[in-house]
Automatic annotation (TrEMBL):
InterPro entries: UDG_Type-4/5, Ura-DNA_glyco_family4, Uracil-DNA_glycosylase-like, Uracil-DNA_glycosylase-like_sf. It comes from Streptomyces hiroshimensis. GO terms for molecular function: 4 iron, 4 sulfur cluster binding; deaminated base DNA N-glycosylase activity; metal ion binding. Keywords: 4Fe-4S, DNA damage, DNA repair, Hydrolase, Iron, Iron-sulfur, Metal-binding. This is Type-4 uracil-DNA glycosylase.
Amino acid sequence: MPGPGPEGYDAAPFVPEKADLRRLREAAAGCRGCPLYRDATQTVFGTGEPSARVVLVGEQPGDQEDRQGEPFVGPAGGVLKRALAEAGIDPAEAYVTNAVKHFKFERQERGKRRIHKAPGLREISACKPWLASELRLIDPEVVVALGATAGKSLLGPSFRVTQQRGVPLPLPVPDGAGEGGQEGEGAGALVATIHPSAVLRADAAARAEAYAGLVSDLGVAARLLRG
């Protein structure tokens, strides 16, 4: 099995060439491209059909996703499914994945509870070859970046969800390079919004507004899909 790079942050050696989604998923189960695999239960790869017109990219698996091996099966997933339906996107017709495929967490002091910890730029960059391969195979019309981590993976470290959410943006080519190795744009569009977990974290007074904003941003993606 290939090993990670000198710093231990590079999934590229584990990504098989000319593989379909099934083969990618199988290979990702053995990824050792960054240290996150050591404590996570398993790799959580994307789910959905290769013919999906829209790809939803989240941050990383949460506690429930890590245990069950599927993305967005926890509380944030419930919020996302409801918001998609209200925005006019059938959740069953979307491909759902994360920018980072392993759960990053820290344990609560004197307890067994695992507390989510946001992935860093090295982990986002290390895992990008998996996301790039998914996007190349699916070639979606629209990609929705759910939160800052997904946005940084797709658009670079300067991305700010508060400044770039809810508007159609050019979708970079999946490997981040165009002709001659320069940054380029693909044929699809990208729409950024908050991660659905932000709705759950909001206090009672702000929760309805946060949810309405999520639905509104997803509505932009829905209109793009309708043409």
